[in-house]
Amino acid sequence: MQTLALDPGRPPQQVRPGLWLFAPSRDSQGGSSWLLEAGQIGCSGDLLVDCPGYTEANLAFLRQRSSERGPGRLVLTSREGHGRCRRLQEALGWQVVVQEQEAYLLPGIESCLTFAEKYSLGPGLELLWTPGPTPGASVLHCQVGEVDGLFCGRLLLPVAPGQLQPLRTARTFHWPRQLASLWRLTSWLPSNSPQWIACGGALGALRGEKLVLNGAEALAQLDLSA
Fold this sequence. Notes:
Elements: E1 13-16, E2 19-21, E3 34-36, H1 38-41, E4 47-49, H2 56-69, E5 73-75, H3 85-92, E6 95-99, E7 112-115, E8 118-122, E9 125-129, E10 138-144, E11 147-153, E12 157-160, E13 163-165, H4 175-188, E14 196-199, E15 212-213, H5 215-220
Parallel strand pairs: 4-5, 5-6, 6-7, 11-14
Antiparallel strand pairs: 1-2, 2-3, 3-4, 8-9, 9-10, 10-11, 12-13, 14-15
């Protein structure tokens, strides 16, 4: 059988030192994926947050990263970010990290690490289960050296520059649990952290910005009682 040619795609763009943003992926309902370089967080390999589009440009970039630092890890923040995870893992050999509620959605994954409520990927790299957007949604907090960021998947989405909200959509799994997860998140995070927040979608609302800056302040402004 003839192999179909890959979409050439666009390479990721560097947002800040050691942090890269991939083009929105059609395989993840237009979701955004991020890569945090190993050198920024003291790991042997990079951290890829959610699955980017399976394109020539993304594969070339990730293979180059593997050749420089060794295999990385792919952290999935929800089923909305799975994309073509199996194909990407077959091409790269990276370990996949996913909350246990959604591991069944990844048949055929050779190296898969699951966690329940919390999991540490290394010093200052903490995962928290935040169900609501999907049953196995999670967030990744990174507080290592000069890096102080939160990858929140689709638990929160930008609505304007510097502003976040939980948004209820037709795909939302459980709205009350999503709000409860936000209460838990705000008590779990260290004081005055994070400096910035990377969301898993709807980045157009940031009007050219890619990150929500002053992340701790943006979280403090949430009116969850409303």
